[in-house]
Amino acid sequence: MSMIAVNGTELHHERRGRGEPLLLIQGMTGHSLHWGEPFLRALERDFELVLYDHRGVGRSAAHDAPFSIAELAGDAAALLDALAIERAHVLGISMGGMVAQELALAHPDRVLTLTLGCTYSGGPGARFTDDAVIQALAAAIMSGDADRKIRTGWEYNVSAAHASGEGNFEPFAQSAASYPVALPMIVAQVQAIMAHDTSERLSEIRAPTLVVHGTADQMLVAANGELVASLIPGARLELLDGIGHLFFWEQPERVAQLVAEHAAAARS
Q1: Distance in angstroms between the alpha carbons of the first and the last residue of the chain
Q2: What is the pLDDT of residue 268?
Q3: I need a labelling partner for 137 at 20 to 30 A (CA). Which of 30, 153, 207, 240 fits?
Q4: Cβ neighbours of residue 144 under 8 Å, at least 6 residues apart?
Q5: Is residue 7 classed as helix, strand or coil in its secondary structure?
Q6: 180 lies in which domain range?
Q7: Domain tally, the chain
Q8: pTM to 2 decimals?
Q9: How far is CA 168 from the centre of its chain?
């Protein structure tokens, strides 16, 4: 684990595993611990994982200026440059999937394969988070009660079945409590997400693309995954029945296998 200077800030990053590099791009308020150890252990059997925290999040340096999703994609490209990684497989989830879209569009030569999870393109037909969900999450954040914030986030980010499963919440809560994100950074990320729209450009993506989405996603409904897949030439859509937004917490082995198979198909 170490810090690395990119684009006027410093990003925390970590490399683990063996194989072709796989860049992992987290979502809103997510940091590298939010991938969960079961998923990371499954992935590192096939890849060298490159994990990092977005500017102002997790163990990366504090950041107080506004930014765009495209600028976050610039951070990802600069990180690959700094690590002397010419090309990588890319997996982005939620906001990280938006960053991955911009990365694949701006730097097509850097992306071996693209996996977009539980994400959103913006534009006609895209569906943002329902107001009731946003209000419940905002109320939990503004309450000042850290436990309520984490519990509410958990309940909206996984399926009801997984949320109530014995022993499922504790690892997530531990990860979420490790590096809480400051409210101004949450606002900055929301602003970047609201401005995101790649819908008219996704047809330019040439990287082999896998789109994964849970059918029980309450944060970004599965129609968004269907739309993203329809806009990218040759993209494959994998819908996970009854699974929520953080699908890789609910089915880490299955999702890691999907990513590995996607990479293997591209090689062949």
Answers
A1: 33
A2: 83
A3: 240
A4: none
A5: coil
A6: 2-267
A7: 1
A8: 0.97
A9: 20
